[in-house]
Fold this protein.
Amino acid sequence: MRSGKLHLTPEILRVFYRAADRLADLVALGADDEMWDEPALRRQIDEILALSCAAEPAAASPASPDDSGDAAADGDLLAQFTPTALDFSFVPPGQEAAAFRRHRITFAPTAELFANGHEPVHLFRELAALGELNVEAQLDAAAAWDADAPAIVWTLTLDTAQTRTEIQEIFEFAEPFAEIRIEEDGHDPAGTESGTSGSDALAPERAPAPGAMADIASNDPVPIDMQPLSTGPAGPARGTEQVDAPQGAADRAQPDKAVKTGSRATVRVDLELVDALINMVGELVITQSVMNQSIVEAGLASDRRMASTLEEFRTLTRQIQEGVMAIRAQSVKPLFQRMGRIVRETAQIAEKNVRFVTEGEDTEVDRTVIERLVDPLTHILRNAIDHGLEHAERRRAAGKDPTGTVTLSAAHRSGRVVIEVKDDGGGVDRDKVLASAIAKGLVPANANLSPAEIDRLLFTPGFSTASKVTNLSGRGVGMDVVNNEIRSLGGRVAIISEPGQGTTISISLPLTLAVLDGMIVDVGGQTMVVPISAIVETIRPQPSQLHWIGPEARMISVRDLMIPVIDLAAVFDYAGGSGALEREGVLLLVENDRGEQRALAVDRIHDQRQVVIKSLESNYGHVPYVAAATILGDGQIALIVDLDEITQGTPALPTPPQARKSA
Amino acid sequence: MNIRVLAIDDSRTMRDLLRAALEKAGFWVATAEDGAEAVEQLEAAAPDVIITDINMPRLDGFGVIEAVRGSRCAATVPILVLSTESSPEMKNRARMSGATGWIVKPFDDARLISAIRRVARV
């Protein structure tokens, strides 16, 4: 394939992936000392061989002698490819094998190099792009610190298929500021390339940079003995006053070296340990706030020392918590890469042309969340390709690029992580969805649903979008499984669809599973917590701002926008009853994931603080309008409201008994 | 991360050419029409790499290099000279002033871009 005889086709790619899987399996089996599935392996090998047969009939012979079926197949291939043998004569023998050569590069920069804005590490990075690079720093010269001599001498070994010219080009600008020698090891397995092997110093053939070389040459070249520095920034112990420059450089050299050789210092920790730590830190946060409150109540907080200590304690607790969370945070890149493969496979089975685009791969998400996103994302992506994208002909007919685009993106948005799968397909076929939902008895036949409501039907349990059961989707588990999985992570799934333009499914997740910045409010005599991330502003409404729309519903006009008012006490049926607004209540202007604003009426705002989320779902199942609970500083338990359900006016679909509250 | 480039040239055409070439490569580009303007912009532009012409009114390329090297905020920023000049004397002078590299005009997009990537500390 590398020599261009075989072109990369999706078919080949698929076989390669399977082969990679097989290899991974074999490694795993080997680790467990188990036997592998010989016939399956055999099949796989044959499959790969079949590919190479297609390209090189001459090489095919060893593949088949023991297998008559294969031999026949090979025969066919041979028949088709008779003239191919000619190709070989054009490829000089040994060309491919001769590719990798080892270059030894000695790089002795002058102080001027740094003064002129060069940074050796960046040169090394470029070199590393050419092949396998190993960097060693020699600090002997720094020990004999002499203002004109190079402070550090770097010895690099580079295994690369590139020629010396490419290497020289990298040093192009640095050349006048350093002594550079590039030697080739006679390490050339095939030894075919015409006579350039062996070692020769670069100096004579280098285009002379006037002045520069003369300067350096007049200094004695620093002797380089092969004594690589082992560990630590163990620069020579010198008087502190004269060490600055070279020592600083040496210090920098060490970590850089570590990065280059790919061994960044890490510790592998059992995830359970980290989880235990996170839980304990959660408790610490609660204890901290309990203590804080007790001290305030005991009237001790007025003491200045006490107050500042408390403040420091609070900051530290928070920092510890963030630090611990950061341990578990991981970029979504590996996850996205995995999805790339699923897209390819799905596209192949569905026989659609798909361009897969990822955005925001560096977004960091809690590790446990990432793991649990694999299945939902797989499902969503498959759906997007199988149902979302149209076939090439239909796309062409609709005047679209015959290759569909599926975009997977991640971003941090107002304290949450939003992951979106966007396709440019035909959008949700609402007529079909509605008809199907009616046929399945999920909605009454005379239901009058808005387009958005129809789209949400996709998430209803028992609703499967597939008109035909394919290998990809429609295996009885629908998007409701996705919905449940995401909800159990404290996230939400939203769908936005534009007929003919495509569909976006967006998953919004909390940054961490354990903590939340909340606003503590009074609702009908109960204490509740509203997630701060969703609160846009708080309003003390003037009567003139409020408008009655019908007997129950009210709107508030905020800067010429009419926003529906939701009375939290009424939502929860609290005995204190509704009417917070009549009792000089406060409105919290909140925004949900779809960007819709609602004003929540509460009696009073207490406080704003970090709360530790205690899940209710494991013990109580899903509680309508409630996301979770928390323990406040005084030991009281408060419910955290589920803004999405409240702003939608309907509880989540899995709990129909409470449906009466829908507006 | 995008590499931020400050391109200094007194020719409008040259600035446009540079901007087009560099933005296509995904760099952020700020331009200045002479050395003096470049020095004013230096802090705000916070470039990762500076590309400068030599012959310019008010403050020439050498002046730019010296000013940058003497500045507080950008003393170590790599500076590539992009000039029609190619005499050893000029190159040596630039080198003494603290230039990082010298590219002779007319420039080749790919070469310029790879040169920038090579020196940028990003």
